[in-house]
Amino acid sequence: MPLDHTSAFYEENAETYAKRARSLPKQQLDAFLAGLAPGAAILELCCGGGQDSAYMLSQGFDVTPIDGSTELARQAEALIGRPVGVMLFQELDADSAFDGVWAHASLLHVPRPELPDVFTRIRRALRTGGIIHASFKAGDAEGHDGFGRYYNYPSAEWLSELFANGGWRNIAISESDGGGYDGKPTRWLIVGAQR
């Protein structure tokens, strides 16, 4: 399974990854939070070092952070001072429990054939009218980076079709140039949608 190397990378490099110099995606975070009522319940999928959760908590939101890596969850707990659940996307089993799902640079590791099921699980976890933010590294075919991490590398058209087929509404996809942990220039796809 392609996630073996990906999971191993995050377990073995958790402290370095969590404590790296990273710019908070503040513009995207603020835009996401602006679509929610004050104090809304947010699920953060793959919280990494916990910086985004810390920001959302500081803004008064009720955040439930989870990560697939035990070691990264421990790093995030140290930062935010609250428990971080350890769970894979494929294990998400909540029903109408959240107003928003923040999945910044996380669902890009889900194998393409598993994405429809994962999005169904995320949609079910949201209350009616709930919103999702997700970002992906753009591409045309799945592959691996220099660290051996798996990426699904979707196109905007492919993602749009995936969301539409999953019953999502108000789908908006934007693109931006940026970087990643590997230091290489990256074309990002940013998706917003509503249950």
Structural commentary:
- There is one protein chain.
- With 195 residues, the protein is α/β, with parallel strands linked by helices.
- It has 7 helices and 9 strands.
- Helix 6 (115-125) links the parallel strand 4 (98-103) and strand 5 (126-137).
- The chain is globular, with a radius of gyration of 15 Å.
- The mean pLDDT is 93.
Q: What is the topology, as strand order, of the major beta sheet?
A: 3-2-1-4-5-9-8
Total strand segments:
9
The rounded distance between the terminal residues' Cα atoms is: 30 Å
Mean pLDDT across all amino acids: 93
Helix content range: 25-40%
Topology:
Layout: H1 3-12, H2 14-18, H3 26-34, E1 41-45, H4 51-58, E2 62-67, H5 70-80, E3 85-86, E4 98-103, H6 115-125, E5 126-137, E6 143-144, E7 150-151, H7 156-165, E8 169-178, E9 186-194
Parallel strand pairs: 1-2, 1-4, 2-3, 4-5
Antiparallel strand pairs: 5-9, 6-7, 8-9
What's this model, at a glance?
With 195 residues, this protein is α/β, with parallel strands linked by helices.
Keywords:
195 residues, 7 helices, 33% helix, 9 strands, two-stranded antiparallel sheet
